[in-house]
Design a protein that fits this description.
This is NAD(P)-binding domain-containing protein. InterPro entries: NAD(P)-bd_dom, NAD(P)-bd_dom_sf, Polyketide_Oxido-like, RibonucZ/Hydroxyglut_hydro. GO terms for molecular function: oxidoreductase activity, acting on the CH-NH group of donors, NAD or NADP as acceptor. It comes from Fusarium proliferatum (strain ET1). The protein is an alpha/beta fold. It has 3 domains: 12-186, Metallo-beta-lactamase, Chain A, CATH 3.60.15.10; 228-349 and 425-518, Rossmann fold; 353-421. Helices cover 33% and strands 17% of the residues. The protein has helices spanning 40-44, 62-65, 136-140, 163-180, 191-195, 199-202, 207-215, 219-227, 239-250, 283-290, 312-328, 357-368, 371-381, 383-399, 405-421, 425-434, 494-507, and strands spanning 12-14, 33-36, 75-77, 83-85, 88-93, 100-104, 113-119, 124-128, 147-149, 155-157, 183-185, 230-234, 254-259, 271-275, 295-298, 333-337, 446-449, 454-456, 465-468, 491-493, 514-518. It has an 8-stranded mixed beta sheet with strand order 14-13-12-15-16-17-21-19, sandwiched between helices. A 6-stranded mixed beta sheet has the order 4-5-6-7-8-11, covered by helices on one side. It has a 3-stranded parallel beta sheet with strand order 1-2-3, with no helix packed on it. A hairpin with a 5-residue loop joins strand 9 and strand 10 (155-157). Helix 9 crosses helix 17 (494-507) and helix 13 packs antiparallel against helix 14. The radius of gyration is 28 Å and the shape is elongated. The two termini are 43 Å apart. Mean pLDDT is 86; it is low at 1-9.
Length: 533
C-alpha cells in the first residue's frame, strides 16, 4: 500500500515481510521507508541471499533483513502507542487524526499488519486485510483453513504461521463487517476488482486502475474467480427466484437451484438443479442440499399453489427450518427475501405495513392503477387476480365518468373486504414475523430484503434506489398527511430487484440490515412473471 504523508514528504510503505508484499522499493521510490509490524526483525533475520547465493532454508529477503553490507532497503518497525480499535486489541493512529489505523493482525506471520482507512467524502471505512486470510469464502466461513501435519507431528497451516492467532484475526474481521459495517479488501482476493459492483471498494481506484481490473486478467482466471462464488437459490423457478438465477448466471456465478423441480428453469453450464422437497424433507437432507454454498438466497414462496397456500404458520415453520439447516451447513451469507409487511409504515414509530389496516386499501388501489400489475396478479394468483381486474375496471369507469350503480357497488364491496380481512394479510403478516428470526441475530451472517409494495414483473431498467427499514414512498404533497399514501407507493420489477440482490451478494454492504429497493415503474407493459434459461 502506498500513501503520501500529509505534508507531501516521501511515501511510506506498510507491509509484511513475505516477498510478494515487500519487493525492494528503493529503485522505484528511492526516498521511501518501509514499516513492518513489531517482531518482524527477530523472526526474519538473517535474510535469504545475504551470502549472495540462494538458500532453500531461509525465506526472508536479505536485502531487507541481512547484515548492513547487504541491506539495500530503508525500513523500521512501527513504534508508538497501540490502543484497541474496533474488534482488534492493538492499533496505531498513524496520522493522529483517526483517518488511518495500522492494525496488529497476527497469525499469518509475526509483524503481520492490516490497515483501516476512512474514505473522505463518503464516510466509509475499509479494512485493507493484506494476508490476514486469503479468500472471501474463508472469511465467510464456507471454507476451512488449509492445514497439514508437520514432521514434528503438530498441526500446521500452509498460509498461516500461528493457527489460533489467525483464526482470531479472521473472526475480528468478520465482527468488523457485521458490527461496524466495515468493507474488507484482501490482498489475494480479486473478485471485487473483477465484479466492480462494490462502490466503496471501487472508490479506492482511479480510472486507469479500474480499467486494468478487467484488461489484465486472463479470461480463464476471470472465469475461475467468478465461478468460485457458489450461490444457492431456494425457489429457482418461481417469480423472484427465476429472475435472480438468470441475473446471477449472467454475472458468472455458479448457481444451485433448490426446489422440487429445479430443472424446469432450464439448462446452463453454470446452473446445477438440486431436487428436494424442503417442506417434507428431513433436516439432514436439507442440510446436505445447502452444503458448500458461499451464499444462500431464500426466495421460497407458495404462490404457484394459489392464494389458499398463502398461510401464516407453514411459512414461519419452513423459514425456521431453512435457517437452522443453513447454519448447520455453514452457509457463508444468508439472503432472506421477505415481503413489504415488515417495513415500517410512514409516520409510525412501531407499526409495520402488516399492522396498518389502511395500508391495504392504498396497496390494492396502487395495484389496480397498473395494468401490468393486475396482469401479473392474474397470472400468479388466479381468482385473486380476477377480482382485482374487475375492481380496476370499475375504478376506471368511475374516473372516466362512466360509472353506474353496479361499478360503485363492486368498488364498495371490494374495498370493504380489503379493510375487513384482505386475502393476502395472513401471508404478508407471516413475512413480517419472519424478520424476528433475523433482527439482532449475530449467530449467522444475513441480510433481509423486503420488496416494496408494488413489486411485480416489469422491464429491467438496470438501476434502483436503496432504503433501510422504511416502506419506500414518494414525498407527500403539500398539505397532505405523511400517513396518506394515495398514489405514493413505490415499486420495483423482479428484474431490477434481482440486480439489487446480486449486487448485495457481491459486495455484502447490507450485512445484518433490513432493506428495500425501488426503481422507475412508469412503463406499464405486462411482462412474464417467470423467466427461464
Amino acid at each position: 500500500m502506498k500513501l503520501l504523508h500529509k505534508d507531501g514528504s516521501p511515501e511510506p510503505f506498510r507491509i509484511h515481510a513475505h516477498w510478494d508484499h515487500c519487493r525492494p522499493i528503493s529503485q522505484e521510490f528511492p526516498n521511501a521507508q518501509a514499516f513492518f509490524g513489531p517482531g518482524t526483525k527477530d523472526f526474519c533475520s538473517p535474510g535469504h541471499l545475504e551470502s549472495g547465493q540462494p538458500s532453500d532454508e531461509i525465506e526472508w529477503d536479505g536485502r531487507w533483513f541481512g547484515s548492513k553490507q547487504h541491506v539495500t532497503e530503508d525500513w523500521s518497525e512501527f513504534e508508538g502507542t497501540w490502543v484497541p480499535w474496533g474488534t482488534f486489541e492493538r492499533a496505531l493512529d498513524y496520522f493522529g487524526d483517526g483517518s488511518l489505523w495500522v492494525i496488529d493482525a497476527p497469525g499469518h506471520m509475526p509483524g503481520n499488519l492490516a490497515a483501516a482507512v476512512k474514505l473522505q467524502g463518503i464516510d466509509e471505512w475499509v479494512l485493507l486485510g493484506s494476508d490476514c486470510c486469503h479468500s472471501m469464502p474463508l472469511l465467510r466461513g464456507t471454507e476451512e483453513m488449509a492445514t497439514y501435519i508437520g514432521q514434528d507431528g503438530e498441526l500446521k497451516a500452509y498460509l498461516q504461521q500461528d493457527i489460533p492467532a489467525a483464526h482470531k484475526t479472521i473472526d475480528n474481521i468478520r465482527k468488523l463487517q457485521a458490527d461496524y459495517g466495515v468493507q474488507v479488501a484482501l490482498a489475494h482476493d480479486a473478485t471485487w476488482l473483477i465484479e466492480q459492483t462494490n462502490p466503496v471498494l471501487m472508490s479506492l481506484l482511479d480510472d486507469n486502475k479500474k480499467g486494468a481490473c478487467t484488461i489484465k486478467v486472463h479470461p480463464a482466471y476471470l472465469e475461475q474467480l467468478t465461478m468460485g462464488l457458489r450461490v444457492g437459490v431456494i425457489g429457482p423457478t418461481g417469480f423472484g427466484g427465476s429472475y435472480l438465477c438468470v441475473e446471477l448466471i449472467k454475472r458468472g456465478y455458479a448457481v444451485r437451484g433448490i426446489s422440487r423441480k429445479p430443472e424446469n428453469l432450464g439448462q446452463n453450464p453454470a446452473y446445477t438443479p438440486y431436487s428436494i422437497d424442503i417442506e417434507k424433507g428431513s433436516f439432514e437432507d436439507v442440510v446436505d442440499a445447502l452444503k458448500n454454498l458461499d451464499v444462500l438466497v431464500n426466495e421460497y414462496g407458495p404462490h404457484t399453489a394459489g392464494e389458499h397456500a398463502l398461510q401464516y404458520k407453514p411459512f414461519l415453520e419452513l423459514t425456521r427450518k431453512i435457517i437452522i439447516c443453513a447454519k448447520a451447513a455453514k452457509v457463508g451469507y444468508f439472503v432472506m427475501v421477505g415481503g413489504c409487511g415488515s417495513l415500517h409504515y410512514p409516520g409510525s414509530q412501531f407499526s409495520t405495513c402488516a399492522d396498518t389496516k389502511i395500508f391495504w386499501l392504498y396497496y390494492r388501489r396502487g395495484i389496480a392503477d397498473s395494468h401490468a400489475h393486475v396482469s401479473y396478479m392474474e397470472e400468479r394468483l388466479g381468482s385473486m387476480g380476477t377480482s382485482l381486474r374487475d375492481y380496476r375496471n370499475a375504478r376506471l369507469a368511475v374516473r372516466q365518468g362512466k360509472s353506474d350503480p353496479a361499478a360503485e357497488k363492486l368498488i364498495d364491496k371490494y374495498e370493504h373486504a380489503v379493510m375487513s380481512n384482505d386475502s393476502a394479510l395472513e401471508f404478508v403478516t407471516a413475512g413480517r414475523t419472519s424478520f424476528m428470526f433475523f433482527d439482532g441475530n449475530a449467530s449467522f451472517r444475513w441480510t433481509y430484503v423486503s420488496p416494496p409494495a408494488l413489486y411485480r414483473s416489469g422491464v429491467r431498467t438496470g438501476s434502483y434506489t436503496l432504503i433501510e427499514d422504511e416502506l419506500p414512498v414518494k414525498p407527500a404533497p403539500e398539505g397532505h398527511e405523511e400517513s396518506d399514501l394515495t398514489g405514493r407507493l413505490h415499486g420495483i420489477s423482479a428484474a431490477d430487484l434481482a440486480i439489487a440482490i446480486a449486487d448485495e451478494i457481491g459486495n455484502e454492504k447490507l450485512l445484518g440490515k433490513h432493506w428495500s429497493a425501488y426503481s422507475d415503474m412508469s412503463d406499464d407493459t405486462p411482462t412474464p412473471s417467470y423467466v427461464s434459461l
